[in-house]
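G., the chain you wanted modeled:
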Amino acid sequence: MTNDGKQKKAGKKFRVNNSIFRILTKTAPSAIFICQDEKFCYINPAMEAITGYSKKELCTMNFWDIAHPDFWSFVKEAGLARHRDVRMPFRYEANILTKSAHERWIDVSLTSIHFRGRPAVLAMALDITERKQTEKALMESEERYRAIVEDQTELICRFTPTGTITFANNAFCRYFTKNQYCLEGKNFYALIPVDEFERVIKHIISLNWKNSLTTYECRVLAPNGEIRWHRWSNRALFDSKKRLIEYQAVGMDITDRKKAEEELRALALLDELTGLYNRRGFFTLVEQELKIANRLKKEMLLLYLDVDDLKLINDTFGHHAGDIALIDISYILKETFRESDIIARIGGDEFTVLAIQTDDTNTEILHTRLQDNIKSYNANGKKRFRISLSMGIVSYHPESPRQIPDLLREADTLMYAQKQKKMEYLNP
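Predicted structure as tokens:
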């Protein structure tokens, strides 16, 4: 083939390739442009759409003119270096200003080429503004969450299934006289005395996808070697495939409350028959619990319960059967409520409970749980009588504190209304 033939063939191939390039760039969703001698010399439609400038306008501008002022130097240096074929980062993210002065983020890839016989830079840019906005929102959300957690007076930490601490808030660090960097990587389980270890582990490993929260009280080894009482709420955290990632623990020192409980026992403020707190014990302990709730801004629930037809049980089967019914009710209440809740018998057939309100202790859940336990007891069929309770529940809000006697009166009214409905249903 002659030289003329080769040149014609090469020219034809170039025109075909150039035609394909223009078709591809014209329909591409990404911005594609070529810079030569510091100017834009080729612009595809997507580049016009992203910047808001027309092709004619862009071709009169330096390639760094569209960059945000914070990125002028970097964009200029990266573009010129690529133009000289210097090994600079071939991909970067930059902020640009559109013709209407709106900020947009682009992900830019650069490569050195020859265009019309001279060195040039070919670039492709993806609009990543939405992704950047999402990242910023997530970062701000995380910062707000961290600020909330750090400001809590409760002890908060996260740890892996093997116990390695991955996060501890300021209150946790102050309590254990360590900074966050010293605590992270340490083992959460090392804080638990040996004789409490098995019980605590049992609580934690019982958590699963459906039952992800547990609350318990245990002794903890303080840095000074003192054994302190804590109340912990542990939550298991799972990924989208229901695989356990880590645990979050929220704890508070309840040593003073435990000492108060011991003093109550010493003062014989427990109900002799059931072992629950009696009226005086309930009011003494609740006063301290409400102080904690007000300080931590925790909502609480107060339940007032009355045994249905206790007189009928006494008259039919004798007072001994009535005592057994009261003892069995105390067992049902202990099974229904958490160890940390305050349960008391404040009258002959009257009981009351003060519980911290959480996701798993709202009014409906507690009512259902109690009724299920009563049904289970009655279904057992081992006793000659059946147990039934009427109940009233009221909420306590720290933002608008009320006295316990007022709450008891309101709960008593609700309980009586429920009892009346039962009587009307049974005796229409």
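The longest strand covers residues 103-115.

Shout if anything looks off.
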